[in-house]
């Protein structure tokens, strides 16, 4: 199994590290526009493999022909946000980068499943799909896994319980309008509302919506990368293992949840071809309204691309 990661910056190299450390693939290729960066980081990761007891081979390169025959291509190339910026502020710069990379993927890895990570996520995923012309099943945006793991972290913290006891589902766009689902968020199988009052749940949801910004504020020079890297690895693992795992991913909707021609985070069953099917959950009226708002926010930005 071969995975290529385009963009050897903070997010790309963190993802590469998790994939290699956990031996999720057999072969990893790290690609970047900057000379030396992918080569140096790949070599550094390779040298850790005896300690990881992993036989994964990783290579760094500036040459897109090396992504040939990849099962999965992850795109993390692009600029991250700085304090005070929203993900949408990255639209112009990153859309040019995505356009050029889409051409390279189409040429060099036409049968791969593409995971887009570059922000603004739902718009860059849409652009990737349009520019590659791939089947919608083959282009997935990584956001919901990250937002859900953040939500689980904050719940575990507040309840002082283990993270493994908590299941969470965050849908919608990867922005301030994301929709953490109360009814589908459980602690030891029971709804979160059995353990926390409305005010506390609202505070956790609010912190999740601002989870990325909270880290940007601390770092000042860039955005989160360890949890995004682990979230990317989780999606790759689900694709390669084909164990029918259901993960929230941003995908092109064609009528599901009542939306069309828009990328939005929804629960997806993944397999080796990418999206296997979309799970339509029962949403409360409030959640559906929030999802409508989230869809409207994504749509507004897609219109800026045209
Ligand atoms: N081709 C390949 N690599 C590129 C290109 C390109 N056309 N343009 C930029 N890059 C590379 C840069 O050289 C850099 O190594 O993308 C990398 C980005 O790394 P960082 O600046 O560290 O950014 P990072 O924190 O990894 O975030 C990347 O992921 O989560 C999102 O919002 C985040 O959009 C941002 C992206």
Could you walk me through the main structural features you see in this protein, from its secondary elements to its overall organization?
With 306 residues, this protein is an alpha/beta fold. The protein has two domains: 2-141, 3-Layer(aba) Sandwich (Rossmann fold); 144-305, Alpha-Beta Complex (L-2-Hydroxyisocaproate Dehydrogenase, Chain A, domain 2). It is built from nine helices and 14 strands. The protein has helices at 10-21, 37-52, 91-108, 121-132, 144-159, 198-209, 211-219, 226-241, 285-305; strands at 2-6, 27-31, 57-61, 72-75, 113-116, 139-141, 166-167, 170-171, 179-180, 186-187, 190-191, 246-254, 260-271, 274-278. The strands form four sheets. Strands 3-2-1-4-5-6 form a six-stranded parallel β-sheet, with helices on both faces. It has a three-stranded antiparallel β-sheet with strand order 7-10-11, with helices on one face. Strand 8 (170-171) and strand 9 form a beta hairpin. It is globular and about 50 Å long. It binds adenosine-5-diphosphoribose. The site of adenosine-5-diphosphoribose (APR) has 28 residues, from helix 1 and helix 3.
